Amino acid sequence: MFRTAALVALLSAAALVRGGAAAQDFVTGDEIRKVSPRAAAPLVEALVQNQGMLDAHDIDSRLRLSHFLAQVMTETGGLRRLDENMNYSARRLTQVFSRRTVTPAKAEALGGQPEAIANWVYRNRLGNGGPETGDGWAYRGSGYIQLTGRTNYRLRGEEIGLPLEQQPDLARQPGPGLEAAAAYWSARQINRPADLNDRPGIRRLVNGPRMEGLDQAILWHNRIWSGIYRDRPPFPDETAAVETAGIDEPLDAQQALERILVDEGFAEAGAIESGGEEAAAQALRDYQESRGLEPTGVLDEDTFYAITDPEEWRNAEDTEMAAAPFSGEGDQGVGHDLAGTAPAAVPVLDPVTGSGEAGTETLDIGEQTDFAAAGGTYSAYETAEGRYEGGSFIPFTVIGDDDRVAVLDTTAFPSRAIVQILFRKRAGLGQSLCTGAMIAPDMVLTAGHCVHGGTAMGSWYADFEVFPGRNTGSKPFGACKATRLYALRGWTASFFVSDSRLYDLGAIRLDCDIGQRTGWFGVAALPDAAFGQPSTVQGYAADKAPPGRQWVSLDQFRVLESDKAFYENDTFGGTSGSPVYTGEDYRITCVHTNGLHGSGNWSRFNACTRITPPRLATIAGWLEEPQP
């Protein structure tokens, strides 16, 4: 096995023994520079001066701190820079990116131009527009824990309360960048695997299921643990066991290094172990020569920084949001209570017309103002792969001629059982609009992205007001607030947007039993035999005048997949969550979610989340859930 004095010395620096630490004494600048001598001074200073921020997020034990610092070092190349280095030569461009992304001829034209490279390789991906928009450069990989792409900036910003989409440079500033990293660490509950010294678990939550950079993070963690925390006394109130934190640092680091060399193609799996120390040294020399380094065969300082550089492990071809894993079935439900409200009534699955008792109430000035400022809601998966012009998302949801027909009387059934939903994605943000349908006296069925941001990076929305049968300035059935939100587990806990889109379904429990007056839709599973049957989408569209009017579009189910159904019904922002039903059988079999985007059926048709037997059982469970 490959064990050299240089490797041991580099990864087992002498620890500084100190007394118990306060919040501002978790780590010093000298200690950071000891484990990463090339760290940029402003990034070191931000860590030292903002340790209270770490304390506020409970990153306050030796294990938690060592793992947080290890991930930060991994993501930033040893605290050397907070943004992705896009300064590729033409040759390196063709090595890092596929021919599909950049041809050799294009690489020759782009080489040595970081901004042009970023705008090209990240074009029309992750919510970015084309190369002319500048999105690739604005939303390049950035931060102490890096994020890439306009969609990820928006979702991370919504999660932690920073306007990262509007001001992407915040992620590249030491103070706000550190705040974003600490908030992300806390929101993903990464302290839990840190307390268990679960290094793969930590990396999974930071990077996603591929755990790219895991071995580099192991190298950094061993260096930080042995160089700073191994011999320190416990911090106040520290309870996590640390017996396994260091393991056998030299051997552990050696094995991580060998895996990197195998992954990089400088040795065959098993060849190093069978060939012994010399085989490992030769593999490392080959790596060093390929990177223009002195071929010493030992992990010297230059080689350590090269092999842990994010350029080595980050797969720029498939950048996705990292999110927490979920256990169990994606079609199971999750719920979220809203403060300051109390629930009402009773559940059923068959359609009921209700009393139809309508009032003459109109929107008050505040409601008129809120609606005027609110915009239609689009899912992250639609905006991530959609069209952009001048940096703005352009929805593509009207297919061919616009055949939508206005509903002039919303006091008749089923129009009165269709609701407009007003909400905020986060306190302090502007308001958004969706549609939903009553399915019980006190419950609305809608899209998942109308109640929660989606994936484990998302969060529950707030400040809900629901207006049954709204008709421009009239609210004939008043307005209700929400007490509890529901969504499929696959929507709230998937790793990736591309997975969560299959589970885009949610519901809202109201603080009133307005359904006794409006009536409600039934809910039924959409059978495979529904192919070619009529599809009716009815809801509120943000592009039509006057605002606040329902619109109906008729088509047919043109493609049925196991989780989604596709049609050419015309829709727009604000229609998300609309009921999809057939003729006068007022049973919802699908919930409208998105317009055209991406590839395959998604690029040809508008779509809805299909009600399946397991999902019907989940909805029934929501309806039957005991209420306090």
Topology, please?
Blueprint: H1 5-11, H2 29-35, H3 41-49, H4 51-56, H5 62-76, H6 90-96, H7 104-110, H8 114-121, H9 135-138, H10 150-160, H11 174-187, H12 191-195, H13 199-207, H14 214-229, H15 249-263, H16 271-290, H17 301-307, H18 310-313, E1 333-337, H19 365-373, E2 375-376, H20 380-384, E3 387-389, E4 392-394, E5 405-406, E6 418-424, E7 431-440, E8 443-446, E9 462-468, E10 480-488, H21 489-493, H22 497-500, E11 506-510, H23 515-518, E12 522-523, E13 534-540, E14 550-556, E15 559-560, E16 564-567, E17 579-582, E18 585-594, E19 606-610, H24 613-624
Parallel strand pairs: 2-7, 12-18
Antiparallel strand pairs: 1-10, 3-4, 5-14, 6-7, 6-9, 7-8, 8-11, 9-10, 10-11, 13-14, 13-17, 15-16, 16-19, 17-18, 18-19
Number of helices: 24
The percent range for helix content is 25-40%
Into how many domains do the coordinates divide? 3
- Superfamily (CATH H level) name of the largest domain: Trypsin-like serine proteases
Share of β-strand residues: 15-25%
**Name of the level-1 CATH class of the largest domain:** Mainly Beta
Quote the average pLDDT. 84
The major sheet is characterized as: 9 strands, mixed
Structural class: alpha+beta
Straight-line N-to-C gap: 63 Å
CATH architecture verdict of the largest domain: Beta Barrel
Question: Any low-confidence stretches, pLDDT <50, length ≥5?
Answer: 1-24, 318-328, 343-348
Radius of gyration: 27 Å
Query: Under CATH, the topology of the largest domain is which?
Result: Thrombin, subunit H
Strands, total number:
19
Shape: elongated
